[in-house]
Write a structure and sequence with these properties.
410 residues; mainly beta; Immunoglobulin-like; L,D-transpeptidase catalytic domain-like; five-stranded mixed sheet; 4 helices; elongated; disordered C terminus
Length: 410
């Protein structure tokens, strides 16, 4: 093996050092773009003025003063982190916002400039927009808490919103995030109501967060108001399948049957509605009368362990007076009745948002919206037609909210 003399190695190191020294020397002559930005305060002007107030119905304008420099970039954000879109003129003399300003908001504007020699300048300024005179408020629901896999998210508006463009503005501002992520979408029930549901019921133990970013945004002749966010925790997948023809209810948790219950459902003329319903409330005691549903068969009963599935008065509840018919015949006025023991167990097992599905009845199909959360009875393609941001398809028709709510039926 040959040996390299020590002096040759040192010479090689000297050759390596020499280019670095040349590079360092070159760096002493700084390029203008590497310089620290200068204060461009005297180089720019804004129609809002530093710390001033601007009408949110007017665009924001930033302009270069004099002929010794130009604007290279403008970034404007409000306190919520929303960016304000804009256009910069080709000669860099003016920047103008192209999207509406939010009302009652604080904006931070960062302006980049350069002078005639290409040296960069910076200027940051802030301003306020005037509050809105007319607000469009949003109430998100349900209240934060734990719910079943069928629970939709709702948005109630304080004033009607009509027109696809205005509705799209609202819809884009209503955010629903879930962990794990699922495919879902909003559907306009009417001019003031939207529902959000995933394509399929929520996976068990999903976390759902809903919020509105509409605050200050222009919608028609109003501006969006603040909205309280909601956070839902989805529990186990609990679903009850009522076979009206077979006079039994099968209750499942996460796909496994946990109890089969003899039941009675609506008799002819009072047939229980078919389809998927979502539990709306749990009421330990309800007074039910024939007058409340316009029945010619008189009754006035105190009912225990009542689980409401429609606002028009359909429940799953204890019916000790019909135990002899449970599992054999349908004798109720539309509700699903069972023994007191089974009703108490059912009441303790289910939660708001769980699914109750009725099959085998001669009754009508549960409507999507009018009397409760029948959202799951609308197929996904039709559901998406009720969105104002989905380009394809026409809008699904939806009826007004049910005027006759809270009418119990036995």
């Amino acid at each position: 093996m040959s040996h390299i003399p020590r002096f040759r190695t040192a010479a090689g190191c000297a050759l390596l050092i020499t280019p670095l020294a040349v590079f360092a020397a070159a760096c002493d002559n700084q390029h203008p773009l590497s310089a620290q930005p200068y204060d461009a305060t005297g180089q720019i002007a804004a129609n809002a003025g530093e710390g001033g107030t601007i009408d949110p119905d007017r665009p924001l304008e930033i302009s270069a003063k004099g002929d010794d420099g130009r604007i290279t970039d403008v970034t404007a954000t409000d306190a919520a982190g929303r960016y304000l879109r804009g256009e910069l003129s080709a000669d860099g003399s003016r920047w103008r916002s192209t999207s509406p300003l939010a009302a009652g908001a604080h904006y931070t504007v960062r302006v980049s400039t350069e002078d005639d020699e290409g040296a960069p300048g910076r200027r940051t300024l802030g301003f306020e927009t005037r509050p809105a005179d007319k607000l469009l408020r949003v109430s998100l629901g349900p209240d934060s808490g734990t719910y079943g896999v069928g629970q939709p998210v709702t948005a109630e508006l304080s004033h009607p919103v009509k027109g696809r463009e205005a509705r799209a503005t609202v819809e884009r501002a209503l955010k629903v995030d879930s962990r794990p992520h699922v495919e879902g979408g909003w559907h306009w029930v009417d001019d003031k109501t939207l529902h959000f549901r995933p394509r399929r019921p929520w996976p068990a133990h999903t976390t759902v967060e809903a919020r509105s970013t509409l605050d200050g945004i222009k919608v028609g002749n109003r501006r969006g108001g603040p909205a309280k966010p909601v956070r839902l925790r989805i529990g186990d997948r609990v679903e009850a399948i009522t076979d009206a023809g077979g006079h039994k209810m099968t209750v499942k948790r996460n796909g496994k049957t946990i109890r089969t219950i003899p039941v009675t459902t609506g008799k002819p003329g009072y047939d229980t509605r078919n389809g998927v319903k979502v539990i709306l409330a749990k009421e330990p005691f309800v007074r039910m009368t024939s007058e409340s549903i316009g029945s010619s068969d008189f009754y006035d009963l105190g009912v225990h362990w009542a689980v409401r599935v429609t606002w028009s008065g359909e429940y799953v509840h204890a019916a000790p007076w019909s135990v002899g018919s449970q599992g054999a015949a349908n004798v109720s006025h539309g509700c699903t009745g069972m023994s007191t023991e089974n009703a108490k167990w059912f009441f303790d097992t289910v939660k708001v948002g769980d699914i109750v599905k009725v099959v085998g009845s001669n009754g009508d199909r549960m409507p999507a919206f009018d009397i409760g959360f029948g959202d799951w009875n609308m197929d996904w393609a039709k559901w998406r037609e009720g969105s104002s941001v989905v380009p394809a398809g026409s809008h699904a028709e939806s009826g007004p909210a049910d005027a006759a709510r809270l009418r119990p039926q036995v």
